[in-house]
């Protein structure tokens, strides 16, 4: 997933515009009419008030040719929310409509990772005063997911994130100083709170998908040689 500044042909400016629009979403306000007319959609948002970070998933247009997708990261600095940057692509992964259960679409659809973005913390840098060392600043990070109909919430570290009806969700977190941000453990929860699948800090696939892959390997002829 690219950064906003990596987009060609004026799309970087679009990313910045979407980031500023996302501040309205965080404030609980509707998009302006001109934004809706331009095809801009706020897919999902998430705020971790204790960590002072937030994210908004924005899209403009649809499809692989004329769509722009942006994960916008925000941080509370000196008491105010600030747009810190984002990442996305020239195509969109949001598909509006009713989501289907994994029992129909397969175990790999229970918890699907779609994209991510991260930026060094401005609040941490400001706290350093004159002793500025970017490597000592933590990360403001976010990731997007699509989940199956069985999933009602995501457990993100110690807190829970509700799933919109369309099944597309963004989660934000604050990561400590490191070469790269590590995500907190994420679990997909069912209606009764049971864990349906999990995604570890360094994993690219969730446990439900890995189980299905391993089962498929075991079912192959001469699987002991695989």
Task: Give a written overview of the molecule.
It is built from six helices and twelve strands. The chain is globular. The longest helix is centred in the first third of the chain and has 16 residues, at 11-26. The two termini are 32 Å apart. It is an alpha+beta fold and 226 residues long. It has one domain (2-225).
In spatial order, strands of the major sheet run 1-5-4-3-2
Helix content: 10-25%
Structural class: alpha+beta
Count of structural domains: 1
**Poorly predicted runs of 5 or more residues:** 1-11
Listing every helix as H and every strand as E from the N terminus to the C terminus, the arrangement reads EHHEEHEEHEHEEEEEEH
Tell the overall outline.
globular
Mean pLDDT comes to: 86
Write down the Rg: 19 Å
Number of H- or I-type helical stretches: 6
User: What kind of assembly state do the chains in view correspond to?
Assistant: single chain
Distance between the termini: 32 Å
Strand content: 35-45%
Tell me the number of strands.
12
Largest sheet: 5 strands, antiparallel
């Amino acid at each position: 997933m690219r950064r906003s500044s990596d987009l060609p042909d004026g799309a970087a400016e679009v990313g910045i515009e979407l980031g500023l629009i996302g501040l309205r979403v965080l404030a609980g306000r509707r998009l302006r009419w001109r934004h809706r007319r331009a095809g801009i959609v706020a897919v999902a948002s998430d705020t971790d008030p204790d960590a002072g970070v937030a994210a908004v998933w924005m899209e403009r247009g649809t499809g692989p040719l004329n769509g722009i997708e942006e994960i916008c990261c925000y941080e509370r600095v000196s008491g105010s929310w600030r747009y810190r940057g984002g990442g996305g692509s020239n195509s969109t992964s949001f598909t509006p409509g009713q989501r289907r259960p994994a029992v129909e679409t397969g175990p790999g659809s229970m918890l699907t990772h779609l994209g991510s973005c991260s930026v060094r913390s401005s609040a941490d840098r400001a706290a350093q005063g004159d002793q500025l060392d970017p490597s000592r600043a933590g990360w403001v990070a976010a990731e997007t997911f699509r989940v199956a109909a069985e999933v009602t919430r995501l457990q993100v570290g110690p807190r829970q994130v509700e799933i919109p009806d369309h099944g597309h969700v963004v989660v934000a977190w604050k990561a400590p100083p490191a070469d790269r941000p590590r995500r907190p453990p994420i679990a997909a929860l069912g209606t009764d709170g049971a864990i349906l699948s999990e995604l570890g800090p360094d994993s690219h696939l969730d446990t439900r998908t890995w189980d299905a892959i391993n089962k498929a390997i075991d079912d192959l002829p001469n699987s002991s040689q695989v």
